[in-house]
Amino acid sequence: MVSRRGRAGSARLLPFALLCLLGLGAIPASLSGQGPNAPQIKKTEDMEFGDVLAGASYRLDPLVDGAGSFEVDGSGGAEVLLVFILPLELVGPGGSTVPISFGDADAILSPERKDPQSGGRFDPRIPITYISPNNNGKAFVWLGGTVSPGFSVRAGEYEGTIVIEASYTGN
Asked: Considering its fold, how many domains does the chain have in total?
């Protein structure tokens, strides 16, 4: 299993206001292929929420800058199963936490083309299967989500880890 950690965005206080900004993002991913001949997953971009106001939920759509992105390289024509193990919270200064959630349209899968507009949305909480393209075996995934920091959350950098497992189904 390959594990990568990224650096989260910086946090700062808004001048003339009592609201704090949270630097949320750079959610790294642990990527693993299940077995010696499993599809390989490569992270191409960390999730970056950037600065988020305390007390306000923020949804990162998988179509926009800051969405996490991954490339899956498998055998052409094989059925591939992707399983996402998603965090429930991000951890920051002094163990402070911010809830993170994922919904039914927070991921996009595009076999063959590295263009999220060409893909279909899916719920990353539910395993998904697809047929790996015959020409090169590559597929591309983009991931967004929603953070919901409370008013009393501490300003600072928050991070979490996403695990993606890929395997062939045998079909």
From this structure: 1
